[in-house]
Write a structure and sequence with these properties.
By secondary structure, the protein is mostly helical. 60% of the residues lie in helices and 0% in strands. Helix 12 packs antiparallel against helix 13.
């Protein structure tokens, strides 16, 4: 998405329905990744494209496409005859006494990172936990890079469980979430502040200009304004008066004068 450095604080969130429709069309034509993208663009008031794409993902999963099975995320628990890897997981989450930890470990080792993630909090003191986390990072890195947005969120959680997460993995997780889901753009900006002020600026601008449908407040733009007005940030205005423009539009539209 192009950045417009002349606009103030946008009133409505960006409408991605036309984009979802394009991904759904490609999904219907047989492109698996487009199905994952369509489900990643859910909105509070428009679920039809998501539901149709989800049904196609389910068929692709049943046909043997492992990434399509993984792309279900936690949507799978609503399916009575779930063909994916998650049946053991949801039995475990709903009734810990019947939790099959050995089975979940097998599915984790077999290439299903959500099962690895469940073990991190259901069996957190297991002696093999470092190996489980390492497996989860490897798998979710693969899924995130392929465009399974839900696994970018999982990658970020796995990275939080290690003392020195790889920089490239942190960037991958946040960049994909910012691009696909329009989420965590400000976290990406904060990550870049110490290494690349221009990339930090663009991430903050992206979070402000293209906030997702679940973020309807002006808070998405406040970190951007704060970065421009902080002389220590190293983040320069792309056009003169950009910080004032954001401040004035926030005051005018929302009566929020930072």
């Amino acid at each position: 998405m192009r950045l417009d450095f002349e606009q103030g604080v946008p009133a409505p969130p960006v409408d991605r329905l036309p984009v979802r429709a394009m991904y759904l069309k490609a999904c219907q034509a047989g492109d698996h990744r487009s199905c994952w993208m369509a489900t990643s663009m859910a909105t509070p008031n428009s679920t039809e494209p998501v539901n149709e794409a989800e049904a196609i993902i389910r068929k692709n999963c049943a046909a043997g496409d492992r990434l399509s099975c993984r792309a279900f995320g936690d949507l799978a628990k609503s399916l009575d005859d779930d063909p994916t890897h998650s049946a053991l997981v949801y039995l475990c989450l709903n009734d810990e006494a019947r939790c099959d930890f050995a089975g979940i470990r097998r599915e984790c080792s077999g290439g299903f990172p959500y099962n690895c993630f469940v073990l991190t909090f259901m069996d957190s003191f297991a002696p093999d936990m470092p190996d489980i986390v390492a497996t989860g990072i490897t798998l979710t890195r693969e899924g995130c890079r392929a465009g399974v947005a839900w696994e970018c969120e999982q990658l970020e959680k796995f990275l939080g469980a290690v003392s020195h997460p790889a920089w490239d993995d942190r960037v991958l997780a946040l960049e994909q979430q910012c691009t696909i889901q329009l989420s965590n753009c400000n976290a990406l900006g904060a990550l870049y502040r110490s290494t690349s002020p221009d990339k930090a600026r663009d991430a903050y601008e992206h979070g402000c200009q293209y906030k997702n449908e679940f973020d309807i407040t002006i808070e998405a733009c406040k970190p951007l304004w704060a970065a421009y007005t902080d002389p220590k940030s190293g983040i320069l205005e792309p056009v003169p008066g950009r910080a004032k423009q954001l401040h004035d539009s926030a005051c005018e539209k929302y009566r929020a004068c930072w």
